[in-house]
Amino acid sequence: MAFESFFVSEQPRLVAIALGWSGDVHAAREAAQEALSRAFRDWGRVSALDVPEAWVRRVLINLLIDQQRRQHRDQVLVDRLGPPGLVPAPVHDDEAWWDAVRALPDRQRAVITLHYLEDRSVREVAEILEIATGTVKATLSQARDRLRVMLVEEDLR
Question: Structure pTM?
């Protein structure tokens, strides 16, 4: 069986199972998508099973249980510590700036947000990301260059 036909057949069923479990359409679709992504990742092994549908359902149920446990832990923390405080306003309130930051590669985006949004030093960013301070400096430089190019291009439009 090709993965595409498996996906078409199973996706609505998985969403229905997850919806029955969680009652949340968005969470149901997300859980079904993750279960199918894992099936795709391991398709060579999964497709050889007698009942690949059972495997993907077990993965879905495990994902839903994990999600439920996470939500419970979060609620315990909120009950113990109180609700989270207000999120500080971003350094830049310019939507184009944040769109450009979100378009950066992961490491550049992480370095920029930690350095500018949280006002972390290069050393602190290096410790958080577990990379060398020289790598943080180089990544900041590369990210600034990319942001400059992206924002100039945006201004020209």
Answer: 0.56
Task: Yes or no: say if 85 and 116 are a contact pair by the CB < 8 Å rule.
Answer: no
Multiple choice CATH, 95-156, 3.40.50.2300, 2.60.40.230, 3.30.70.1170, 1.10.10.10:
1.10.10.10
Residue pLDDT, tens place only, 79-135: 888 777 655 555 555 778 888 888 999 999 999 989 988 888 999 999 999 999 999
**Per-domain residue ranges of the chain:** 3-81, 95-156
pLDDT at 27 over 60: yes
Residues composing the chain:
157
Residue with structure tokens 């078409």?
A: 8
Residues 148, 126: Cα–Cα separation, whole Å: 23
Using CA atoms, how far apart are residues 153 and 146, in angstroms rounded to an integer? 11
